[in-house]
Amino acid sequence: MKICTVIGARPQFVKAAALSSKIIELKNKYDIEEVIIHTGQHYDALMSEIFFNQLNIPREKYNINVGSASHAVQTAKMLEKIEKIIISEKPDIVLTYGDTNSTLAGVLTASKLHIKTAHIEAGMRSFNRQMPEEINRVVTDHLSDLNFCSTQSAVENLKHEGRGKTAYLTGDVMYDCALKFTNTAEKNSNPLKEFALEKSSYILMTCHRAENTDTPQNLKEIIQGVNRIAEIIPVLYPIHPRTAKMMKEFNLTFSEKIKIVPPVSYFDMLILEKNAAIVLTDSGGVQKEAFFFSIPCVTMRNETEWTETVDEGMNILTGASTTKIFDAVNKFLSTPIIKTQLHPYGDGHASEKIIDIIMA
Predict the structure, then answer these.
(1) 340: which of 72, 312, 315, 354 fits an S-S bond (Cβ 3.0–4.6 Å)?
(2) Which of 114, 119, 160, 208 does the annotation list as catalytic?
(3) What is the phi/psi pair of residue 311, to 5°?
(4) CATH of residue 297
């Protein structure tokens, strides 16, 4: 069995770490080979190279280096180059992750070449078609032969869309990674010391989605909200390159009280999430990781795919509103959190279940 895995963005490297390591581990059980195609959608060393090194992901056989571009141009470049690779490699199945343009390009190319496809993190829905990620999710799920779902709600979404026969409830590979790598991270990394932070006494922030960064009013509201928060508790922000670029373009600045640092490694991120008082984000993956560590999360979006985090009282949606962001942080700071006893994201063995299903 030859698997071609298409990845290209930071969250996909984390997810691939769980599955790729399990493929290596199960080689004695199965006759299985993985060929990794890196699209280069994330190409900065802090957004790409460091993840391969820390997580021991097998090196990609191909890196097509598409870099930044509009959605159409970036996807078109990927389609052209992935097609040549797949024709050459002749895989039995093409594996994609999540909701990026790399995901879309991988499944489109394979489908038109009549090669089986599998989608990890399938069935997630924000029900907001203004988000490019939502378009990518829907198209990928409807083209994939195997849809591996992190949660029961994802399975139900696919059933409602007539794709129930393709859906498999496996749990979340990011939960696999959090369980696998947190102890290693704590032995090899100390970002609290590096950034002069005290446990449970700071806010960890991330912000990168185009709906927030590329709209001047939204970005202004977020910055104003975070500036107010920094008056009552320290805020650490490993800044995303897109956000830095748009802040400069819109002539916006953070308060000097906010610690702005370059993107951090996966190990550092795990430790920073685990020890934060609150996580403030617009990232889907970071919402989940905060939940894994029972850390309250404030999500600067109007909807989330990860509805379980909201249902369990661990996540508040605010959109890009200065007042709502500040009020949500204050609520979590003043109200004790009842840690969830549920594990909607599986048992930490999603990767093995996925490989067993593929091989079956």
Answers:
(1) 312
(2) 208
(3) -60, -35
(4) 3.40.50.2000
